[in-house]
Specification:
27% of the residues lie in helices and 18% in strands. With 327 residues, it is of the alpha/beta class. The protein has one domain: TIM Barrel (Alpha-Beta Barrel), CATH 3.20.20.70. A twelve-stranded mixed sheet has the order 7-8-9-6-5-4-3-2-1-10-11-12. Helix 1 packs parallel to helix 2, helix 1 crosses helix 9 and helix 2 packs parallel to helix 3. It is globular and about 55 Å long. It binds S-adenosylmethionine (SAM) and iron/sulfur cluster (SF4).
């Protein structure tokens, strides 16, 4: 086993793999007009290609894989994918980020297949607002999916909410109440600017500072953050089973502890979420005999990972939306 290290001595143990760019939701900040296949789009990686890809990353010391999208549960073979990935030697955690629309029926089979953690995106607990944000009236189904995930026995169930000025920033108290008796980690994520948003970002972006003050005022205590903890600052409260967290990609030092690499649904390695281009690994995924070549290619590419994104300067690379690469 090697270590995958870049020129800034950051170690990569975490792969975020988009298994499809398709999605049935129309989140206002992501796919406001619904999914439309980009012209000339290649097919999503097959399960054999995914097996070869994850095996190479595992050889390089990656121990956690998150399946994302688009909406990963749109793939008919999502349970089989989890089954094969979680059995690859070296992979200790297999996680999923989902809009929760199919979680009610899938939580148990996914858990049995080896999924260890699930993140569900819920931007509002109000049915009308949820449907305004996502373009679907599926809040009830998504909440049933969360309950199903809680009873299936996952190590962690997290809920991500993108902070949207005047749309859900007044809902913090509602989310807090919701986690009183549920062991859920809610995380508010600052809206990130992408290419397809136009002025939307300017009037809906809100920094997490306001929520932080609200949490501190209501007796929530910030957990001590370790370098391996991931990007969220987490708060807990003795009277609540769940936790509340904030993810602020525009904060200083956000990239310093970056331990993640991303691969698109067509096999493009993306070194930074807000980078300029993907490097295709697909030519190295056609046959098991290419394993060593693939490992060497990944090592070479990772050395070029940039030290930071340039979001603070308004530069979001060529990221048109996050559905292509999975956030
Ligand atoms: N469809 C799945 C879902 O919604 O959870 C997985 C893919 S989605 C791109 C992954 C995460 O990225 C979601 O939590 C979503 O809310 C978040 N996201 C998408 N666009 C974003 C943006 N512009 N800023 C911040 N978060 C965003
Ligand atoms: Fe679909 Fe997720 Fe994007 Fe919403 S955030 S449109 S659920 S990919």
């Amino acid at each position: 086993m090697f270590d995958l290290v870049d020129q800034y001595q950051r170690k990569f143990s975490y792969l975020r793999l988009s298994v499809t760019d398709r999605c049935g939701f129309k989140c206002v900040y992501c796919l406001p007009n619904g999914y439309v296949a980009p012209p000339g789009k290649e097919p999503d990686l097959s399960s054999d290609e995914i097996r070869r890809l994850v095996t190479a990353f595992a050889t390089l010391g990656v121990s956690k894989v998150r399946l994302t999208g688009g909406e990963p549960t749109i793939r008919r073979d999502i349970v089989e994918l989890v089954h094969l990935i979680s059995r690859i030697p070296g992979i200790k955690k297999t996680a999923l980020t989902t809009n929760g629309s199919r979680l009610k029926e899938l939580a148990r089979p996914l858990h049995q297949a080896g999924l260890t953690a699930v993140n569900v995106s819920i931007d509002s607990l109000d049915r009308k607002r949820f449907s305004e944000i996502t373009g679907t009236d599926r809040l009830e189904a998504v909440l049933a999916g969360v309950e199903s995930a809680l009873s299936a026995g996952f190590e962690t169930v997290k809920v991500n909410a993108v902070l949207l000025r005047d749309w859900n920033d007044h809902e913090v108290a509602h989310f807090i109440e919701w986690v009183r008796d549920r062991p859920i980690s809610v995380r508010f994520i600052e809206l990130m600017r992408t290419g397809n948003q136009g002025d939307f970002f300017n009037y809906r972006h809100l920094t997490a500072g306001k929520i932080q003050l609200e949490l501190l005022k209501s007796g929530w205590i910030q957990n001590v953050k370790h370098t391996t903890d991931g990007p969220a600052v987490v708060y807990r409260h003795p009277q609540y089973q769940g936790t509340m967290g904030l993810i602020a990609p525009y904060s200083r030092d956000f990239c310093k502890g970056c331990n993640r690499l991303r691969v698109s649904s067509t096999g493009g390695l993306r070194l930074c979420l807000f980078g300029e281009k993907d490097e295709s690994l697909r030519p190295y995924l056609t046959d098991d005999s290419q394993h060593d070549e693939l490992v060497a290619r990944i090592q070479t590419l990772v050395m070029a990972k940039p030290i930071s994104h340039h979001l603070h300067e308004g530069n979001y690379g060529n990221t048109w939306n996050l559905a292509g690469i999975g956030g």
